[in-house]
Amino acid sequence: MTSSLLEQLIDAFRVLPGVGQKSAQRMAYHVLERERAGGQRLADALAAAVEKIGHCVRCRDFSESEVCATCASAARDAHLLCAVESPADRLAIEQATGYRGLYFVLQGRLSPLDGIGPRELGLDTLAQRLAEGEVQELIIATNPTVEGEATAHYLAQLARQHRVRPSRLAHGVPLGGELEYVDRGTLSHAFGSRSEMPPT
Description:
The protein is of the alpha/beta class.
């Protein structure tokens, strides 16, 4: 028996992360009751994005062209390459820092149990970029999870094989945080990777 259009709409909203049956139902009713024009804009934008947005051949970030604007920019420092897990991570770094190098988006992290290995992360493409000899430092910005740390170690080995200096984003006590509220793992990591304070 085929689903009604309303059931199909509710089911379609459930593809979004964190959206269950009730949330999907609320969204569907809201669009139909109050936002039909907005719903049409959403449908048009989603259809166009799915059809026209692919991946940059250099960095694997989302792009409408073969090479994204960041990779094509002559103003970026090609000696610096920052490896991130996702396009959202790349955007966060771009917006929060003054980083002017290039990126490599893994689109995930090593997770053998989920069938995600070096090939799925495009590490053959990354190895080719490192072999070109232009990159001098690989900044590893994977998340501080078990899989993220395993991925970071793999990337560091890959960088060293191509005589590229690997570096890792610092992890530790958040700015404005208080030690008594920091979790034990973060505090232990921060304590173990402490650095000398420069003279003022």
